[in-house]
Amino acid sequence: MARLKVTQVRSTIDRKEPQKRTIEALGLGKINRTVVHNDSPQIRGMVRAVAHLVTVEEID
Questions:
Q1: Where in the chain are the domains?
Q2: Lowest CB count within 10 Å: 2, 10, 20, 22, which one?
Q3: What beta strand segments (E) does 1-60 contain?
Q4: Phi, then psi, of 13 in degrees rounded to 5
Q5: pLDDT tens-digit series, residues 12-50
């Protein structure tokens, strides 16, 4: 199963509340924090909503 490595690279300061909550729901919250999630449509949608704040890598 594919997995996604998501790293926060930008701050949530001055961002709208839904974006802050999405970052929290992904398990992030501080710059350079990294989490690994199973690849699913739900996670892809969350990543797409905050794509300007994170980087994503596919890992096996």
A1: 3-59
A2: 2
A3: 3-8, 34-38, 54-59
A4: -65, 135
A5: 999 999 999 999 999 999 999 999 999 999 999 999 999
* Buried-state track 5-22, b at ≥16 Cβ within 10 A, e below 16: ebebeeebeeeeeeeeeb
Measured CA to CA, the distance from residue 60 to residue 20 in angstroms comes to 28
Phi, psi of 43 (to 5 degrees): -65, -40
Would you state the CATH architecture of domain 3-59? 2-Layer Sandwich (3.30)
Task: Provide the token pair at 43.
Answer: 């996670």
Are the beta carbons of 36 and 60 closer than 8 angstroms?
no
